[in-house]
Amino acid sequence: MNTSSQQHTTAPAMPVQPAPAGWPVPPQPAYAPTVPPAVAQPLPPRQGAGAPPRSVARTRIVLIAAAIANLVLALAVLLQAQAELDSYAAYRGAWFAGALSGQEQAAQAAVGFAQLALVWTALHAAGALALAVRLGRGRGGLHRAVVVFGAWQCLMGALTLAVGSEAGAAAVLQALATLAGGALTAWYATRPDTTAWARRPRP
C-alpha cells in the first residue's frame, strides 16, 4: 500500500545585492516606537475667577442710572422752586404786595427745602456710585450693603411720594425714580445668581 505525503517547498531567499559604488543610498527611516499622544488635561479654574453674572451688571446699571436721574430731577425741583420765588419779585412794590407775602415766604421755604434735598440727593448718588463701582468684586458685606441701600431708597421714595405729592411734577418724578431705582436694586441684588456670586469661594 503506497502512501503519499505532501511536501512543502519554500522558495529560496533572494540574495541582497550591494549597491554599486557611487550610487546614492536611500536614507533608512529611523526607528521610533509608537507612543500614543498625551491627552491635554484642562487646568482647573482658579477660585474667584470669572465674569460676574448679568444680574450683577444690571444692579450696577440701575444704581448708576438712578443716581444720575435723581440728581437731574433734584436740580429740576430746585430750579422750579427758584422760578416760583422769582415770580414774586415783580409784585414787591405793588399795593397788594402784603397779600402775597405769605406765599412768597412759602416759596422761600420751598427753595431752602429744595437746596437741602439736592445736597441729600448728591450724598445718596455718591453712595450709589461707590457701591456700583465696587460691586464687581462681589464681597459679602458689600452685597448686603447694596440690598440695604435698595430697601432704603424704596422707603425714601415712598415717603417722598406721600408727603411731597403737591410739590410739583419734578418732585413727583424724583420720588418715583427713587422708588423704582430702589426696588430694582433690591430685586437684582437678591437674585440667586447675584447671591451665589457674592458667596463664591475666594483664594
Short description:
This protein has 203 residues and is mainly α.
Written description of the protein model:
This protein has 203 residues and is mainly α. It is 59% helix and 0% strand. It is built from 5 helices and no strands. The N terminus is likely disordered.
Spatial separation of the terminal alpha carbons = 95 Å
For the largest beta-sheet, the strand count, sense and barrel status come to: none
- Strand segment tally: 0
Order of helices and strands: HHHHH
Structural class by sheet pairing and helices: mainly alpha
Average pLDDT for all residues: 75
* Portion of residues within helices: 55-70%
Q: What Rg do the Cα atoms give?
A: 42 Å
**Shape assignment:** elongated
User: Which segments are poorly predicted (pLDDT under 50) over 5 or more consecutive residues?
Assistant: 1-8, 43-49
How many helices? 5
Portion in beta strands: under 5%
Features:
203 residues; disordered N terminus; elongated; mainly alpha
Break the fold down into its secondary structure elements and pairings.
Layout: H1 54-86, H2 101-134, H3 140-163, H4 169-189, H5 192-198
Helix pairs in contact: 1-2, 1-4, 3-4
